[in-house]
Design a protein that fits this description.
CATH topology of the largest domain: Phosphatidylinositol 3-kinase Catalytic Subunit, Chain A, Domain 5
Shape: globular
CATH class of the largest domain: Mainly Alpha
Distance between the termini: 84 Å
Radius of gyration: 26 Å
Structural class: alpha+beta
Number of domains: 3
């Protein structure tokens, strides 16, 4: 009996040792913690708190480089609890997080025009990534916010600046990433949820040919430190490019896949103007050529034909040819998605249009979904729920009704309302993110740094009530459309 007891104690000792724990101390793994001395805050990523909590009352201190002593007794570690610790005479709040932890150290000023070298660390569930990145600010309106979004390019080193691919969780393997600061969205979840809804509701029409192709960007919420100061919640986000969509590469036989960004309100992206084009220029009518650009020449030939058909074609020409040039199933999904979100900035710009190869139809890819679900781009509340967003293309599709567009639109709405667009599904997505960020005190540390005068409960109530009202109006609208 005594021998078995000794063996059991030895096993327990080995288990605790393997987890970096002695009888009195918990040691954070390298890269798993960051300390903000200015705000007296420690954020520690540890996904496996249950195994550590096996020691319960035995914990008296933590080792995060230096020793931090418990201020109060600790019965159990939890992601929902803030722990008071002290280092010498200085008091700190210790937060445990399940979100990936990113630390960026940069010695020079960050600007919008040139990537500067920085050291980058990512930690999630024992996965540690340490590398060099080029970093710059991104955006237009977002550049005016105190908390800025960043473009990251992963490099093999700071001298050669050769690109280097990384993958994070279920995201793709790539060298270009975005850290979206989410500053103008008070709950920090709208664009994250919106992008997830699009991925859930729509797949590329060529998915069987390209199993890894995505219909839009994916992202994960992370917590960021910059130069040892907490920088808050961000979304680590993929970029829309040829690789994400798995468009066919051009070759010596000609142009295959194409990708254009709707970047400004000049009439092309809203299908209201179709001016002449010149392939010498990377911009046309509000679009930017993203892929391909060969020997400094763009390729507007086919996109201009599509836009001209919508803007200038007769009703007969439009009815007979639009379904040959545009993927109507994708177009219907994009229209319904934009109207569900009430994405007011995503029909005249802020989307991509692409095609898989030269024989394929064009399709839409959503982008920059920060002004959705009851707010506009600056974060201001716009409580309107009783309107329909449209542009020249969608107006004409509804009026001319090619390929039974109207009935297909209504049928798709009714189908989505039973699944992805159901009240239960949509509210569950909101609740999942909101409850996690609230209960695990992510909002608490976020708004310690970035002040918010309105309570999270008020923001949550506004969002959920807005969504219910929006769904009620859209149900009535599509029911009326079905009857007419």
């Amino acid at each position: 009996m005594r021998i078995s007891r000794i063996i059991s104690l030895l096993i327990l000792f080995l288990v605790l040792t393997l987890n970096g724990i002695s009888a009195q101390s918990v040691k954070g793994k390298k890269g798993s913690f960051a300390i903000d001395k200015t705000n007296k805050m420690i954020v520690w990523h540890e996904a496996n708190l249950d195994s550590i909590s096996a020691v319960k009352n035995s914990i008296t201190q933590f080792k995060f480089g230096k020793k931090f002593l418990l201020t109060d007794s600790l019965s159990q570690l939890s992601h929902t609890r803030k722990i008071k610790v002290r280092q010498k005479k200085k008091a700190y709040s210790l937060y445990t997080t399940r979100l990936p932890l990113i630390q960026i150290r940069v010695d020079t000023s960050i600007n919008k025009n040139t990537k500067v070298p920085a050291r980058f660390t990512y930690f999630n569930k024992n996965k540690l990534v340490k590398t060099v990145v080029g970093i710059e600010y991104r955006g237009n309106l977002s550049l005016t916010f105190p908390k800025k979004s960043k473009d990251l390019e992963f490099w093999s080193d700071s001298l050669s600046q050769d690109s280097k691919d990384f993958t994070f969780k279920s995201l793709r393997n790539d060298d270009d990433w975005i850290l979206d600061g989410l500053y103008n969205e008070p709950l920090r979840i709208r664009s994250y949820i919106a992008n997830n809804i699009w991925l859930a509701m729509h797949q590329p029409h060529y998915q069987s040919k390209e199993p890894t192709a995505k219909s839009g960007i994916d992202s994960e919420l992370v917590e960021v430190f910059r130069n040892t100061q907490y920088n808050g919640i961000h979304a680590l986000t993929e970029s829309v490019d040829r690789k994400l969509l798995q468009l066919k590469k051009n070759d010596e036989n000609g142009i295959h896949g194409e990708l254009f960004k709707a970047s400004s309100y000049e009439g092309g992206p809203s299908f209201k103007k179709a001016p002449e084009y010149r392939n010498l220029f990377p911009h046309w009518a509000g679009f930017e050529m993203e892929y391909p650009v060969i020997e400094y020449r763009s390729h507007w030939d086919d996109l201009s034909v599509l836009v001209s058909l919508v803007v200038k074609g007769t009703d007969e020409e439009f009815a007979s040819d639009i379904a040959n040039k545009l993927d109507l199933d994708n177009t219907i999904d994009y229209f319904l998605f934009v109207n569900l979100m009430r994405a007011t900035d995503n029909l005249g710009k802020n989307y991509y249009i692409a095609r898989y190869d030269a024989e394929s139809k064009y399709f839409f890819v959503p982008w920059d979904l920060d002004g959705v679900m009851g707010i506009i781009q600056a974060g201001k509340r716009i409580s309107t729920t009783d309107d329909i967003l449209s542009n020249g293309l969608f107006d004409r599709l509804l009026r001319v009704n090619p390929e039974n567009y109207k009935s297909r639109l209504v049928s798709r709405w009714e189908e989505l309302r039973k699944t992805i667009f159901s009240n239960e599904n949509l509210l569950a997505r909101i609740d999942s993110s909101y409850n996690m960020l609230t209960e695990e005190k992510v909002y608490e540390r976020e708004y310690t740094i970035w002040q918010n005068e309105v309570s999270m409960d008020d923001h949550y109530e506004y969002l959920t009530n807005w969504l219910k009202d929006r769904l009620l109006f859209l149900d009535q609208h599509f029911e009326t459309l079905k009857e007419n």
